[in-house]
Write the structure tokens for this entry.
Amino acid sequence: MLFAVGVTASAAAGPAAGTEAAAETAEAEAPEAAAVAAAQDEMAPNSGMLGFSAGVDFVSDYYFRGIIQETGGFIAQPFLDASMSLGPVSITAGTWNSLHSVSGSGFDGAPEIFYESDFYAGLGFAAGDAVGIDLTYTAYMSPRGSWGTTKEVALGLGFATFADPYATFAFELSGGADGGPNEGSYVEIGFEPAVPLDDAPVSLSFPVAIGASMSNYFEFENEMGVVSDGAFGFFSIGASLGVPLPVPEEYGTWDLAVGVSALMFGEQLKMINGEDSGAKVIGLFGISLGY
């Protein structure tokens, strides 16, 4: 159950795969950009239809869409992703995991460190020059049995502009992220403007997002058994620094990422999380490989 905060290359964060395809389409229609892209393809280790990425992020705290998962110990979040491009259509599948040094109740035969393992698969579409649409199925699972499996379908929209705005609409098919009695639906809107750094080998961006419940997503049951659902979930703002590593191109593209994010919670999420504080600062360090 990933909530990305300046993450390197994650399954559920930032613009959708269709956005990237749309950006590539826009570049191909500009003669000068096409010439540059062709020159880069000659040097690139992988210019075919298949792509692979892998990496691991280390975070100080783990919140999924503002919902508390872990705030103590060592947290590592490895991922593996594969994609295929078929013109304006892309197919993606992968896994995202969260490993925690803090053991929890509900141990179910798996290593206690194995808190979460998610599987996702989806389709991305390039619509015009700068619009990406993706449809993703995700199964959120806990190998150690900390919760039951939650299945979800999400529709994502991304726009290849300076600020890279995006919107995600997620619908639970079974289970629930907040552990409430009803399947819910969730919406997130955000953007990640990048700061141009002339001739600098690093990238700098500032992700911003707001998450809300469309229905029954942030549920809280009080001592009287009354279930309430708050519309506003959280607001987040952060900074992310990407640093390419000097690895030979035949071994793919390697990057380091350092990020920090501030989460501001709505009243409903403060009750769900059992926290009085309305804000949380989260740090991230990650390494990723793309090929």
In short: The chain has a mean pLDDT of 83. The domain at 17-290 is CATH 2.40.160.40 (Porin).
